[in-house]
Amino acid sequence: MKQDLSYPIPSEAALEPPTEWAELRGECPVAHVKLPSGDQATLLTRYADVKQVLADPRFTRLLTAPDAARLSATDDGGLFNSEMAQIIPDGGEEHLHWRRLVGRWFTAKRMAALRPSMAAMAEELIDDMVKRGAPGDLRAALGFPLPVYVICDILGVPAEDRERFAYWSDTLLNLTRYDKAEIDAAQGEFFQYMSDHLAAKRAEPGDDVLSELLAAGGPEEGGLTDLQVLVTGMGLLVAGHETTANMIGKMVAMLLDDRTRWERLLADPSLIRTAVEETLRMDANSGFGLPRYLRDETEVSGVHLPKGTTVVCSMAAANRDESAFDAAGEMDLGRTPNPHLAFGAGAHSCLGQALARTELQVVLEVLLRKLPSLELAVPAAELERVEGLAVGGLRTVPVRW
């Protein structure tokens, strides 16, 4: 195994993968890496290995174990291994029960019903950007506000509080930018906000996921504890906007980087669905990857992993594995099937993937229709990544039309 590679591995260009990924997949698919905390972990970069580990219940999210690697120097790894993350059941029947209760709100059917309001919201945000004049920042004008509005709607939370959510989620998802005191303070404020919000929902329920979870009663009635509902609300708010907000910017940047891709979608909008999947697969800047803690010893790719190993699954590296995808390094807007791992795999695959897909498709539909002349206002080489986030993104996406 290669020794002491620092992780995350930096990349020269915002939209391109680090060259080390291909080397690791070819020569060292189970590699020793050093995390921002200084602790050691094992990095997986091959499609088959990542898929195997994500589906194996022995690899858990219990990153609070005494021998688990700390992800960041603040010691509690933000969202991944805070005590709050442990409140949602990690596996087995309890986890499936939680997913069933919450997942009812994220079905493809429910998302289809949300499409018209998403499209109307996207149109309004694009109109505002156009009014302000070119060049505009697509991330700030559309990528960030749209998912926040949508997830606030689903949770029944006032959208005018979104700036506060932005700060809280950035603090919870950032592995390097904030110190422990700042992270603890943000978690405390966020926790208090959600407690107050749930008390208001209990008094006056609405048509939203939190009201429904409260109405299901406690564990005796087959529902969740109040604390689990609260943490679910916090988790959905963070996961439901930060990831998609960043992906909207990256998706548009990838499609405009080689403008023949944009032209192709203008000529054939039926490709929107597969184009969204392909940008998810090609995203070289998806963030930290998924860390897992191994409860029992096992083998991956013929390499023995002792009990207590912390593994990082790089879905982004796995999504470019030539053994899983033909011409894996090339963007094929019509690629099908496309079994990428952008949303994970197995029992912990992303609960909100139907929501994310719907938002990305709607954004693309509305942009192609309203701004067919859209182009990047800077060369793609000048785009800058946001560093330190557990979720990867671009600092700005300057565009003109």
TrEMBL record:
The lineage of its organism: Bacteria, Bacillati, Actinomycetota, Actinomycetes, Streptosporangiales. PROSITE patterns: CYTOCHROME_P450. Gene3D superfamilies: Cytochrome P450. This is Cytochrome P450. PANTHER family: CYTOCHROME P450 BJ-1, P450, PUTATIVE (EUROFUNG)-RELATED. Its cofactor is heme. The keyword Heme applies. It comes from Nonomuraea ferruginea. It holds the Pfam family p450. Keywords: Heme, Iron, Metal-binding, Monooxygenase, Oxidoreductase. SUPFAM superfamilies: Cytochrome P450. Belongs to the cytochrome P450 family.
